[in-house]
Amino acid sequence: MEMIRIVDGTYKIRGVDTDISGNEFPMVRGFTVGANGGYITVDATENPEFPNRNIKIKMDSAEGYETVSGGKTPARVESDEEIIERMRKQFGVLTDMTKAAKKGAVKAMIVSGPPGVGKSHGVEVVLGKHALLSDIAGAEKKYEVVKGSMSALGLYVKLYNFADKDNVIVFDDCDDIFEDVLSLNILKAALDSKKKRTISWNTDSHKLRAEGIPDSFTFKGSAIFITNTKFDGNKSKKLAPHLQALESRCHYLDLAIDSERDKMLRIKQIMSDGMLDEYDFSEEVKEEIFEFIDMNKKKLRELSLRTVLKAADLVQAFPDNWEDFATSTLMRK
Fold this sequence. Notes:
Elements: E1 3-6, E2 10-13, E3 16-19, E4 24-34, E5 37-43, E6 54-58, E7 65-67, H1 80-103, E8 108-112, H2 119-137, E9 143-147, H3 152-161, E10 168-172, H4 181-190, E11 198-200, H5 206-211, E12 216-218, E13 222-227, H6 240-248, E14 251-254, H7 260-272, H8 283-295, H9 305-317, H10 322-330
Parallel strand pairs: 8-13, 8-14, 9-10, 10-13
Antiparallel strand pairs: 1-4, 1-7, 2-3, 4-5, 5-6, 11-12
């Protein structure tokens, strides 16, 4: 972590803005402009004169601190703006690939990334617009989002129900199907590179007979898999070859929001884009929510967009002391 020295900055000590020029800290976050002016965030845990946590030091500009001399020249690090732009492009790719899947141009896609960064939302917004047009036209809904556990037979039935061209089936956190060889074989058949993708069920089934589902059909739809785990990280000798075969049939989009810094910048981006507009909060209150998340990011149960919404709910329910409730419910003990 880069060491910096304060040249011109203040920190509130016992309610008074106190000049702390000359103090050195590990840098956590560079100069940022918030609702209450400019500041940097540093790690004060090794300095007994300050709280045992990250703190914000107020200053007028980035010239209020300097890098401590010595040590190796650090490798170039992406700026906040570059990371936000990178994430915007990745989610733009997700939007365009989902549109292509709806048109049948993309038959399969795996979307990987940590929980609570907007993977599912990005896909459902695109497909939801198509569903709205279908409702207006009185046509059948041509997509479904499947969540939770699913058996191999249930997977076969679901693929049959959405087998037509222009249909899309989204498997959202259905990781059970990636841990079952029979389910993986069904998916490999559904997403085969051959022009005709035939899926067969070669075991007698009362369920299929009762529902009038044939033991073989051609799948012409598209599939999107949304997962929190790195799809290529499975080390099982039994499953790995099947997963590799499935991955080879799919476009793989890793949203690459892995670091704490990336997650905070994603939160900043989505909040700036109007994430909390429905709450009718002032800009100052939105800034307070962001600062709470930022200051406590290492202690939160989950650093995600969901946590921001939980904090916003608490502000709405307990406007005078919401931070007390957030500390009790959103943070690890």
